[in-house]
Structure formats: C-alpha cells, structure tokens
Amino acid sequence: MQVPLLDDRGETRLVARLGPRDIFGEMALLTGEPRVADVLAEDRVVTLALARESVEPLLKATPPLARFLTVLLGRRLDEGDGIKQVGKYRLIGKIGKGATAQVFAAVHPSLDRIVAIKMLSHALAFDTSFRDRFLQEARTIASLNHPNIVQVYDMEEAYATFFIVMERISGQDLQTLLENSGPLPPEKAMAVLYQVADALYFAHRRGIVHRDVKPANCAIDAYGRVKLMYFGIAHRVHPRSQEGRASIVEGSPRYMAPEAALGEPIDGRADIYSLAVVAYEMIMGEPLFSEPTLNRLLEAHVRKPPPDISRMRPQLPRGLAEFIRGGLVKDPARRLTSWPRILEMLKPEGMAIQVAAEPPGERIVRIRFRAVAEPQVEAAMERLEKALNGVEGVEVATGELRPRTAVAPDTSPTNSDRTLRLSRFKLPFRRRKRH
After folding, report:
1. Which member of 144, 231, 386, 387 has the greatest number of CB atoms within 10 A?
2. Comparing 56-167 with 172-346, is the CATH topology the same?
3. To 5 degrees, how large is the angle CA 101–CA 104–CA 108?
4. Which residues are annotated as catalytic?
5. pLDDT per residue over 168-196, tens digit each?
C-alpha cells in the first residue's frame, strides 16, 4: 500500500509505503477528525477497521495497547509528520522519553518562550481513576512555587491524552553529569541533595509525593542550582484505608522503595528512600543494586541489605553517611523520616539553613439561621470551640453579623450570620469571651 504525501500546492512530495501489519489512520482515531491523506492499495489486501467508539473501551481495558499508541503518536510528534502543534504551543523537537511520558521542547507563540511539554502515556490517560486524580493534582502541582521545583505553566488536552507545559531548564540533568564525571565529591553531592531534599520537604508538607525521584529528574544549571522536575504523575497522599495494593507499579525500578515495589500504598517515605538511593549512586558512581532482570532488581530493594557506605567510604561526612543508612531502611516505619533532621544532615559546611515562614492555615465556617434555631446554633458553636480549646497551634475566633436594617421575618430566610474562624497561629483579633 502507498500513501502519497502532498505539499502545500497539492503536488506529491513523497510516497510512503505500508507493509503487512502496518497501521494507518491512528491520528484520525485519536482526534476524531478526518485526515486528508489517501491510502492506495497496490494489490489485494485484508484490513481490520476500528471504529473510534469501540477503540476507547479497548484502550482502557488493555494498557499495553494504549502504550503502543503512545509510541506511535510520539514518533509522529518527533518526526513532525504533519503534527507541529499542541494547543497553542509549537513543537521543535524531542527532549526525552520515560516509562510514563515523553517530553518535547516547544515555543509559546505569543511570548516566544521555550518550554518543555510532557505527553502523558495513553496507558495512564485511559485509566479513568488516574485521569481524574491527575486533572485535580495537576492544578495542585502547578501551585508548588519553590526555587528547587520546576514550574508548571499550563496543561493541554489533545490526541486523546494530556500534555503538561513546564519550565525548560538550561543545563544538564544529574544522570548526565554522573555519566560524564563519575562520582561526585561529598561536598558537591551534599549541595545537590540538600536542594532536592528541600524541594521534597516543601511538596510533602502540601501532601504531594513525587514517586519518581532519580538523577534524570534533577536538573542542574551552570550556577549549581538544582530543579526537581516532572511532578506530572505525582499524587496526593490519601488515607491508607482508602487504598489497596496497586495493580500497576509506577516509578523507576532502580530507585524504587520496597513498599512501592510491592504495590503497597506509599507516602513521602518512599521519596526519602529514592533520594537515599540517588545519594549512594552519587558517592559511589554505581547503582545501589545491579541485577540482570526487573524482578530480581525489585526483589533486591525489598530483601537485599544495602552495602555499608561507612565501611566503603570511611572519610564520608557523618551526616551524609547517616542519611544514606537511615534512608535505605527497608521498613518505612523504621526509616529516617524527619525532613528537618535530613536537611541538617545534608547541609554543606558553612551553609546557613533558611527557615521560611509557614503561612497560617485558616478555615472559616459561616452559619446562616432563623431566629428560632439560634439556641441550637449557639450550643453547636460552644461544643466546637470547647473541642478545639487547648489544641496546640490552633486559635479560635468567632463573630456575629446582623443586617443594618430590620428585615421582616417572613421575607428573609435568615435573621443572623455567625462565623467561626480557625487558624494554626494567633489571629489579630480577640477571642470571644465565654459567659
């Protein structure tokens, strides 16, 4: 079969040929829009025609097929075969490729800004539960404003998947640095680790777990500034009672925490394990575990004791050695988990720790009620204030709003407003006196 490709004047510029088991029409399948190219059979052929309405359920039920679709689309985007645009962004080339996404460089047309666009694998985009969580969390991740976290600008939906638009980092990633330079001096390793740890601490305080901490996701610019990248598949920690064993293990096996390898619910402690694996690799210049198969690699993370870093590098700074040992503990309940302690361990000599003021958390509850319900409202307010009285870090203030002019009872649903303001820090107004 042949596919004549036409130029802007309608003249044939190239004839592509298809053979047995080749696929065509996948872009129309993804976008739902007709394509302009013709496919001409040179001989008798048997084709399998797939309708869009029947393919989507098949992709949801078959993740390997969805991943294969991602490979096809990625190739078309990379080759620029009629696909040069994702939303308002113009693609200019591929940057990288991972297990869950592919990354392209692009230009914002009006701002003339170079950005990185991460295309989410269709295997995840067609997972309804992941997709819904991803859409919610993408908004949260975009709010992670920290000097060591790559900035997320935008999100686009196209070609039956999602694209995350991020800051493009100039420089190289840590993986490339290690491949070119070998092991890092302890002081330089600590300077990098400290910045990544500070970024993770910031994200964890907001309930976000990265899940894929590895050298390739840490960019370093010419000034030594580190940016933790690719929060696109991060998630918010949910109560463990709502989670069961995962059917798909996500992340990079070489840096995966034991609980993640087992498919168990994970939290920020998994990121600490991964960062400790990265620290070991930075110092030793080789992976923590080198196994010939994926199953044996995951089993090593679950069962195999890590090498004694202090014995192998006796001159290592004490804090760095303690972090690696404590972070590589298999049992997350016994693992090193205190971020302030970790930051103190990783602080390069002569570097002062800057403590940023935590913004006060606040919640306001407003109750509108009729006069007949005032006793019940007062009793409920008293019970809530009593329950919160004495709780460390909580201050309670209440107020009362009444209309400036009288309103007839039969024309207004309420005759009063009560508000309850809760804050973790002392508020600039007086607490209500109890009688």
Report:
1. 231
2. no
3. 130
4. 212
5. 888 889 999 999 999 999 999 999 999 99
